[in-house]
Specification:
Length: 183
């Protein structure tokens, strides 16, 4: 019996050493993946981001993204696979998704590009490929082709201005409208 006890102890020690070496190597590989040299103009880069900002008049941005890169000198946050909710001070909301976005922290202006979709709490759905938000004017705008759809109609045009405070929308050119029947 005494001969098997040291053999079991040696076997357990070897197994424990192998497990520790394996865990050490896994941790080193993960650390190598996480190490990323950032460009000089980038101060911080994070993954799975929730960025919140409230303007002086009470409007609130909640921006979620797969990654965010912040450059302090430019006061610019660059988002990848962005989803944003704009909650107006009066409670109205706009939800926005796009492949990429830029948010200037000093002016609170934003631009998004790539399969842009905006849905209002009133059920209006706007699609375009590029959209800008100007905080001073409370204005969503684009010069690209745009489509607005709700339960009553479909509007298409080129260029749009949507005043978020008043919900006044203007299509700028090449306007086509189709009303939905049966509703």
């Amino acid at each position: 019996m005494k001969r098997t006890l040291p053999a079991i102890t040696v076997a357990l020690a070897l197994i424990a050493a192998a497990i520790l070496i394996y865990l050490w190597e896994q941790g080193r590989r993960e650390a190598d993946k996480a190490l990323m040299i950032l460009p000089e103009h980038v101060d911080m880069q994070v993954r799975d981001v929730l960025y919140t900002d409230v303007s002086a008049d009470g409007d609130k941005w909640e921006i979620r993204a797969k990654t965010a890169t912040y450059g302090r000198r430019e006061n610019l946050v660059v988002f990848d696979q962005v989803g944003a909710t704009m909650i107006m001070a009066d409670g109205r909301t706009y939800r926005l998704t796009a492949r990429e976005g830029r948010y200037w922290t000093d002016t609170k202006d934003m631009e998004v590009k790539g399969e842009v979709v905006v849905v209002s709490d009133g059920g209006d759905r706007i699609t375009t490929d590029e959209l800008h938000y100007t905080e001073n004017d409370k204005l969503l705008h684009t010069d690209e082709p745009v489509m607005l759809e709700n339960e009553r109609l479909i509007l298409k045009g080129k260029g749009m201005r949507l005043h978020t405070k008043t919900r006044r929308m203007e299509l700028l050119s090449q306007i086509k409208a189709v009303t939905k029947s049966g509703r």
